[in-house]
Amino acid sequence: MRVSMLISLIRPIGPVVIGISLGFTLSLLSVTWVEEPCSNPDWNRRDEVALELDENPYSLPAGSLQNGENVEDFEPRIVPYKPVQQQTPPKKFYRAKYISTELGIRERLFAGVLTSKNTMNTMAVAVNRTIRHHLDNVVYFTGMRNRKIPHGMFVVTHGDERLIWNMFQTIRYVLEHYINEYDWFYFVQDDTYIQADRIKSLVGHLSIHTDLYMGSPEEFIGGETEGRYCYGGFGYLLSRTLLLKLQPNLESCRNDILSSRPDEWLGRCIIDYGNVNCVDQQEGLHYQRFEMGKNSDPNKEEDIRFKNAFTVHPVLDPAQMYRLHKYFTEIELQRTYEEIEKLQAEIKNTSEVAFDGNRSAHWPIGINPPFEPKTRFEVLRWEYFTEDQVYTCKDGSPKCELQGIDKADVTNVIEIAMGELNKKYKPVLHLKKHQLINGYRRFDPTRGMEYTLDLQLEVVNQKGRSRSITKRVHLVRPLSDVEIIPMPYVTEATRVHIILAVTVHDRDYVNQFLEVYATNFFEMSENAILSFLFIYDPFQAQQVNQNDIFANVKAKISAYERKYPVTKIPWISVKTEAPSQIKIMDIISKKHPVDTLFFVANVNTNVNSEFLNRCRMNTINNWQVFFPIHFQDYNPDIAYHNQQPPPTIDLIRDAGHFDRDVFDEACFYNSDYMAARTKMVTDVQENEEILEALDVYDMFIKYSNLHVFRAIEPALHQKYRHKVCNPRLGEEIYHRCVKSNLEGLGSRSQLAMLLFEQEQGNST
């Protein structure tokens, strides 16, 4: 009984006891019973010192070695400080001016024309006129030249008439100046007609890493050289990699190779040191050429090789060169038209399977679709015209005479319309124009000028019967390729001389101008100088000592000079009855250097730094003058009738308008003004009143070839002021001033509402 109770008590803890016992047993079996000192295992190597064991096997005895050093004899060592030698500053890294230079991108084709002193002004000029606008860089190489170089040609003179020497100097000049800028180099004589576009297309399909010598292959006459050279009459194409191989051996070619012809000499040099023969085909592309007969007529030549030729040789005179150019231009134009028709047919066929069907192909096929306005303010306006008159005039008149370029445009459009109609209906019908009933045109910025013509026509069939019909036609004059015109480089660091002419009517507004100017320029140290020009009439000038009408203004200027000691505000007094802009600028121009940048301001103008920067960027010496159009506030009594005007007026339609009738503000360089003024001297001697009849804007338009840049300027903001128009100035200037005053009263809707209220008040 007791045994069973004991077993029942032990049974639950039995597995635990057994597990603990097994754990101890296994741990004892895994213990290593060999006693070893606690040491680095690397010390057991043969060439290291063994350590004697002390009573404590895990400690080192005094005087033992540790890492080869005696612990008892160890003394701290003082390591002297050695300053780190300062490294030389790294060289400044200069970035390339153009990204193409940094990436190693070169231009495609260089063209060199071999000419002479006798043919420079004849054949070379003809070559230049036929290829210059097709190729980026054309250089003319000659031994000797005349004193006067033809206009628009870059000529390199070698100073010797020997042909081989000139060829050697030409190749050396190209290697020194152009080898890193171009991939392909094309050389041709001046008695050869070149189809430049075909040469450009050829090099556009060739690999630039090929050693290529391409032209019209010819066998060498005599000598031991094997291979073929390229005949110079038809031109030849050299790759950049091939010229680089010739570069170190060019002197050897000059000294060792004897030849009477420059093309043979170059061919021998290329074969000897470049191991390349002349070929007329490469990568499936053929160099097409044609030999011209003495009495050949391009218009009668039927040979297909002539029509596909890259070059034609020989050309006997410049007239034949121009005839060839006319012929090949017509061929290229016809091929372009055929390609356009082919692309239009492909677009039309492709549109059949589009989601919208034929509606996805807009007319004309290949031209951008018409502009779609999103709001009523974006709707493009159509102009109505007839053959003699147009009903949209610049001066706001309802109708004016159609003349000048507009007349030529309408005439040309009608001729094109009649030509296309006859092309469509011939030979069944023949159409003759009686008159233009209605004409409409508008400029669409996405595609070009659109025309809609209602023509009254006489239709004649093959039997001679005729009848009168009315036909509506639609035409589009598409926009051509946009050309980027390079502009001279300008900066925003140029100092601006601000010229402010003040009359007796402007005295009350000078204080406000100076307050704004001081805030924007004196306190910000802007790179600008303000100069005043006080204008007196003869009576005011006589009383200047007793009663100076500008005394308060001059005192204000002195106060600002005391407040800002660094600032100086010069002023000049002038006596005149008719203060025209040209007379004023004549005085100012003489007192400043020729490179001075002027800004002619108005006393109502609020000038700021933003505008001055645009004045600097938009005014280019010997290139462009800038006439900004300021924003003029409306009369607050009309624009805010029965309302309180806001403290600051925004540039919105109901607050004001850009005054296109005022040309008071202008930015130009003194040198440009002096050049235009010099051209005006003859007319002034005949009629001195012209100085008062014209302003500076008119002078630049009439007597200068500079670009006159006229654009709205939101940074120029003027408050409303009724200007005093001087009848002594020119009639046109006076009428512009009156018109500016009238249009500055308010918008049409505001004036109409004011008139309506007055009529309502009168009726009651």
Automatic annotation (TrEMBL):
It is an enzyme of class 2 (transferase). Pfam families: CHGN. Its EC number is 2.4.1.-. Its main location: Golgi. It comes from the Eukaryota. It is found in: Golgi apparatus, Golgi stack membrane. The chain crosses the membrane at residues 12-34. The keyword Transmembrane applies. It is a single-pass type II membrane protein. InterPro entries: Chond_GalNAc, CS_glycosyltransferase. Gene3D superfamilies: 3.90.550.50. The keyword Ribosomal protein does not apply. Keywords: Golgi apparatus, Membrane, Signal-anchor, Transferase, Transmembrane, Transmembrane helix. Belongs to the chondroitin N-acetylgalactosaminyltransferase family. This is Hexosyltransferase. It comes from Huso huso (Beluga).
